[in-house]
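Narrative of activities, Objective 1.

The group set out to show that a structural description can be obtained from nothing but a protein's sequence at a throughput compatible with the screening campaign. Below is one input-output pair from the validation batch, recorded exactly as produced.
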Amino acid sequence: MKNLNYICDSNLAITEYNDCTVRALAQTLTGNYEDAHVWCSQYGRQSSRGMNLWTLEKEMLPELGFEKLTDEELINPNNSRKGRYTAESFINAHVGANTGYNYYLLVNGHAIGVDNEGISDSTNFSGRKRIISAFKIKK
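Output recorded for this entry:
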């Protein structure tokens, strides 16, 4: 999978920590780290701090036009036990698939932005983590 951190190559991004929510939003919505940073701060994110999951899921993403994926959409058809996608299996299934959507994934304590070209991620996350919730938005 291709890590597209070039989107977050700015002076502000270099000085930020705990900014996976901002990077994921930049990847899926704007392509611009500064715009995504402003939107997150409007929903209560403080600089170099994580973001409240309830605010993220119930307010910010829906108000920005994201649609939450159903439980059925998060079941991995290639899993013999029909379990939920892991972050890695979802990314492998959707990057390059031309689905017409960008995806915002939430795993335990982390957010990942996914588009047709790759992901934008600030850490070497464990792709084995199960997805807690996911959102999609038309490209």
